[in-house]
Amino acid sequence: MTGLWTTPPESTYRFDGRHYRIEDSPALPKPVQSLRPPIIVGGAGPTRTPALAARFADEFNSVFLSPAVAEAQFARVDRACEGAGRDPGRLRRSSAVTVICCGTDGAEIGRRARAIGRSVDDLRRNGACGTPDQVAERLGEWAGAGAEVLYLQVLDPTDIDHVRLIARQVAPRIEPRRAALRWGLRSQAIPCQRGP
Question: How far apart are CA 161 and CA 95, in angstroms?
Fold first, then answer.
């Protein structure tokens, strides 16, 4: 894919691989992003996934892993980068947070949990659930594990007030040097500097 994306205009692309071959492709359409879109590799595999990320990725995503497991996976990716002769610091780290459920009080949190068919206890254990302070603290655990970007899964896209609450009361509480937040509906990011 990267070969197709980076082929100059008015040129053609050729690839002769083990499983497929491309000859004289105009490599169109070109991506909108300058040079090419970022390659994101993610997963929990202990060996192959880190090796693929070290070799091909611009970003590694610890998909739906707890902060502790994500931290261990980031360490495996770092070792794979070092083994491949790549500076681990040049690979962005992100985590997809299973579900976010935020409310200003217990009633609002419970209503949002019921709307997505989940229990508050389950969401607290496996996602980020609670008041804005509690959710920000929980998201900080992924940032503390090494995530620079957090992708938040909001399961009820019709609850725009929920998205507003996250944007106005959770995002500002995230340590700005630790992680940026991104979520669905329309991908938004809060730009942050790389932290220690």
Answer: 24
